[in-house]
Amino acid sequence: MNFSFIKTHSALVSLLTLLVMIVGVYFFVIRPLRTMITNQATSIQEFYAKEENQAKQVNRLPELKKQYLMIEEKAPALDILRNEDQIVGFIQTLEEVASETHVTLTIASKDNGTITEAKKKVPVKTAKPSEASDAENTTDVKKQVRNNDILANLPFDRYLRLSIVVSGTYNDIVAFVYKTETLSVGLDVVGMEIKRVEIEKDSKKSQGNTSPFLPLLAIGTSAGETTQPVAEETIDALEATLDILVYVNK
Predict the structure, then answer these.
(1) Less CB within 10 Å around the terminal CB: N or C of the chain?
(2) Model pTM score
C-alpha cells in the first residue's frame, strides 16, 4: 500500500526529500560555515585595526615626548596658585606692571586681608516692586545676585579679594589690565568701574602702594598713596577700580 503510494506520488516524494536535504544542508552546513567565516573576518579586521592603532601610537611617541618636555619646561608657569607667603611677591609684580604701563596704582583689600573660602550658592528671592520708587532698590538687588552668581562659580574655592584703583590714560589702563590678566597667576577680574578724573600733568605716580590688606602676613605698611606733585596743569584721565580675586593655595 505504502509502496504503491510512493510509486504513484514519486515526483512529490522526491521534491519533499530534496527540500528536506536542502534545509538540512543550510542549517547544519552552510549556516555554521558562514558564521565561522564571519567571525574569522571580524577577528582579522580587529587584529589589523589593533596593529594600525599601535603603529599610530608608536609614530606619535616623538610628538608626545616633545609635549611632555614642553610641559615639564613650563611646569612653574602652570603652577598658578599662590601660597599665602607669596602674596607680597604678587603685589610687587603688580607694582612692576604699573611702572611699565605708566599708571598710578592703589591697592586695598575688601576683606581686611583675610583669605576667603568660597561659599555655596544661596538662591536669592526678590519680591516684585509695587511702586516706581522701588526701581533703584531692585537694580541693587539684581547687581548683588549677579555678583553672587560669579562668586558661586569660581574655578577655585580659596581666594584673596583685592580692590585695585588704577589711574592713567585709556591705553595705559588697558595695557595694565591686559598684562595683569596674562600673568602666570591664578586670578579673575570679577568687576570693573571706570570714571573720568583730572590728574596733574608730569606728576610722578606712586605705584604698588602699601599692603594694608595683608595682616595675615604681618606686613606693616602705610595705606596712603605717596605722590610728589610737581605739575603745573591738569589733564583728563581715567580711574579704573578693579575687583580682583587672587586664588590662594591651601
Answers:
(1) N
(2) 0.50
